[in-house]
Design a protein that fits this description.
The structure is a single chain. By secondary structure, this protein is an alpha/beta fold. It has two domains: about 90 residues, Roll (Urease, subunit C, domain 1); about 290 residues, TIM Barrel. It is about 40% helix and about 25% strand. The strands form two sheets. Strands 1, 2, 3, 4, 5, 14, 15, 16 and 17 form a nine-stranded mixed sheet that branches. Strand 16 and strand 17 form a beta hairpin. Helix 3 crosses helix 15 and helix 12 crosses helix 13. The protein is globular and about 65 Å long. Bound molecules: ligand LTUXU72L and zinc ion (ZN). Zinc ion binds next to loops. The ligand CSC[C@H]1O[C@@H](n2cnc3c(O)ncnc32)[C@H](O)[C@@H]1O binds next to helix 2. Belongs to the metallo-dependent hydrolases superfamily. ATZ/TRZ family. Catalyzes the deamination of 5-methylthioadenosine and S-adenosyl-L-homocysteine into 5-methylthioinosine and S-inosyl-L-homocysteine, respectively. Is also able to deaminate adenosine. This is 5-methylthioadenosine/S-adenosylhomocysteine deaminase. It comes from Andreprevotia lacus DSM 23236. Keywords: Hydrolase, Metal-binding, Zinc.
Length: about 425
């Protein structure tokens, strides 16, 4: 017998048409959205269904974090107030070399997933070492994830070089084939850590496997200067020559872009993961998001890792994206609230090739959705729920989260993840890392 639940919010957000419905019920059948109907019609059709009443709440699709290094929650606050390459070379890479293991990645990823679900994120596009541990942590938590199998040229305790990373990626993709909430990308780390030959292998393999590619690109001016010195061209020109720029690619950051580069990226259908807080904290620069969107590029939103953000708070991130776009362009109409919500939901889903299953509340899609309680002091009065979701909300107001139909957060409480255990593991790692 199918399990039917009628979810009855005060406001139901239709991201695809920028419309807010009132007086409607979302009909959930097992793991899917079966219909959205006026409440009376839904009760007539399913008189025996379970009912979830959300009288002060907005119901919307779950947020998609388009660029994350989930396990880096265990390095949150480890090294702050530094530029990217100093942060990586002198602090993060030495710490990762010493501590990162299957166990570290499993525990750090679970901590990240708990924080993300608590804040309304139902899916993440990850990139890290120990890909199998990332997948296992997500499966154990019932979280939807795109596992980025990282590939670098230099050896780490995880793999001795590009070839070893690729072999591990292939084995992992094979092991988790058929997992309903898990997908894989190949994730060459960045133009400065991956050779032309390895990028070539990644493109061929991704084509053969029919999977995406996830890479940091044009994050800092230093990256561009380094490429000009080593290769005689900017990274994007090099990557275009290698054939990397296509609709299969999610390019994280893309902060420093010329008009011609924006036009090229738009033409090739590359997706961009915008990471406003990380770009600000590392002082990487201000991405030209309004120009990217105007050129027709699909831009989603990501947090980056908790070691450079230092939160995994997608509502804070989309607010920052909207505010930065206005401040930067001198135009208050730049990146309006609806667009920020679309980027953080449907935009992310599109970038992952998953917009047929998530990103909007539509019949046939997976029930990945969140309810947000707008009765709190900070969101009173309420003329427009969309305004509050972008400009006024605190993530603590997320009250309910469903992933693939499973209620993961009920009245603000995680239902599946055991928070005390996850917190105990974080304390264990803090003691080990601090020595
Ligand atoms: C190979 S797995 C990911 C790798 O990337 C490092 N990292 C985290 N944040 C950033 C960033 O903003 N730019 C470049 N690299 C980053 C992380 O520490 C892992 O080593
Ligand atoms: Zn990153």
């Amino acid at each position: 017998m199918p399990r039917i639940t009628l979810v009855q919010p005060r406001w139901l957000l239709q991201i695809e048409s920028r419309n807010v419905l009132t007086g409607h019920a979302l009909v959930m059948q097992d793991d899917r959205i079966a219909a959205i109907l006026p409440q009376a019609d839904a009760h007539t059709a399913w008189p025996d269904a379970a009912v979830v009443n959300l009288p002060d709440h907005a119901l919307m699709p779950g947020l998609v974090n388009l660029h994350a290094h989930s396990a880096m929650t265990l390095l949150r606050g480890y090294a702050d107030d530094l530029a990217l390459m100093t942060w990586l070379n002198e602090h993060i890479w030495p710490a990762e070399g010493k501590h990162v293991s299957d166990e570290f990645v499993y525990d750090g990823t679970q901590l990240a997933i708990a924080e993300m679900i608590r804040g309304g994120t139902t899916c993440a596009n990850d990139m890290y070492f120990h890909h199998g541990a990332v997948a296992r942590a997500a499966i154990a938590s019932g979280f939807r994830i795109m596992v980025g199998c990282s590939i670098l040229e230099f050896p780490t305790p995880y793999a001795s070089g590009a070839d070893a990373y690729i072999q591990k990626a292939l084995a992992c993709i094979d092991e988790f084939r058929g997992e309903p909430l898990v997908g894989f990308t190949l994730a060459p780390h960045a133009p400065y850590t991956v050779s032309d030959a390895t990028f070539g292998r990644v493109i061929t393999l991704a084509d053969e496997l029919g999977i995406g590619i996830h890479c940091h690109i044009h994050e800092t001016q230093d990256e561009i200067a380094g490429s000009l010195k080593e290769h005689g061209v900017r990274p994007l020109e090099r990557l275009a020559g290698l054939g990397l720029l296509s609709g299969q690619l999610v390019a994280a950051h893309m902060v420093h872009m010329t008009d011609a580069e924006i036009a090229l990226v738009a033409k090739r259908g590359v997706h961009i993961a915008h990471n406003p807080a990380s770009n600000l904290k590392l002082a990487s620069g201000f991405a030209r998001v309004t120009d990217q969107l105007t050129a027709g590029i699909n831009v989603g939103i990501g947090t980056d890792g908790a070691a450079s953000n230092n939160k995994l708070d997608m509502f804070a991130e989309l607010r920052l994206a909207a505010l930065l776009a206005k401040g930067q362009s001198g135009n208050p109409e730049a990146l309006p609230a609806w667009q920020a919500l679309e980027m953080a939901t449907l935009g992310g889903a599109r970038a992952l090739g998953w917009d047929d299953r998530i990103g909007t509340l539509e019949a046939g899609k997976a029930a990945d959705m969140i309810a947000v309680d707008l009765s709190a002091l900070g969101t009173q009065p309420c003329f427009d729920p969309v305004s509050h979701l972008v400009y006024a909300l605190d993530r603590q107001q997320v009250s309910h989260v469903w992933i693939n139909g499973e209620l993961q957060l009920a009245d603000g409480e995680l239902t599946r993840i055991k928070l005390p255990q996850v917190a105990a593991r974080a304390r264990h790692w803090q003691q080990r890392i601090a020595g």
